[in-house]
Design a protein that fits this description.
Blueprint (H helix, E strand, L loop, with lengths): L1 E10 L2 E11 L4 E5 L6 H8 L7 E6 L2 E2 L4 H5 L2 E4 L11 H11 L4 H15 L14 H13 L5 E5 L7 H16 L3 E5 L3 H7 L2 E6 L2 E6 L1 H8 L5 H16 L1
Parallel strand pairs: 3-8, 3-9, 6-7, 7-8
Antiparallel strand pairs: 1-2, 1-4, 4-5, 9-10
Helix pairs in contact: 3-4, 4-5, 8-9
Length: 245
Amino acid sequence: MIQIENLCKSFGELKAVDNVSFHIKKGELFSFLGPNGAGKTTTISMMVGLMSPDSGKILIKGKDIARDPISAKRIIGYVPDQAYLYGKLTGLEFFHVIGNFFNMAPKEITKSIRHYAQRLGFESWLNDRIEGYSQGMRQRMAFGAAFLHDPEILIIDEPMVGLDPGSARIIKTMLREKADAGVTVFLSTHNLNVAEELSDRIGIINNGGLLAMGNLETFKSEIKKEGNLEDIFLELVQNQTESQV
């Protein structure tokens, strides 16, 4: 469903993404991990068409995001690390705008809003202006907007920002449900506990390059060390840093 081939992006002399390649299959929940500045958000920005790569290509269900961005974006639901939600609109108005972007029928939009308002718990403030929402309320709205058109692929950058534990649990449950139903979920997060709990597979990026790919057991085998994902992640990153000194 997602194919990244030899992806490169530089900013001046900084190689933000350096020849990165990986494939993610249908129904897989894939977590993308790395320290600050590792290249995660730059990779995501290219995946959703907000930024163009210097070289390499990104295929979304076989569609090249650079050559056919409209077709590729129609099957993506995207939750950025900082969502912009048009503060002067009410939540209800905002969802109708999003539904129209994806050519949803009015009845389909209404049905989807009802469903996700109930699941995500924002029925009581749908008619309030977004500018008055808290960060956690905005984050739940961002997920509702990403889910609204039932995309085949979800791309999510830091999903738990601003969420209380109850809301975080709801989001984790829904993401796992989506993947089990065949939706491909690409998740970038600093929360290693979330990645360990949810992921089918994990990719670790550092200094713009793909450092490791697999699951927790694969990583333990590669570095011959036991522990949780946090222990393994820190060991892999430290080993790479020491090898470059």
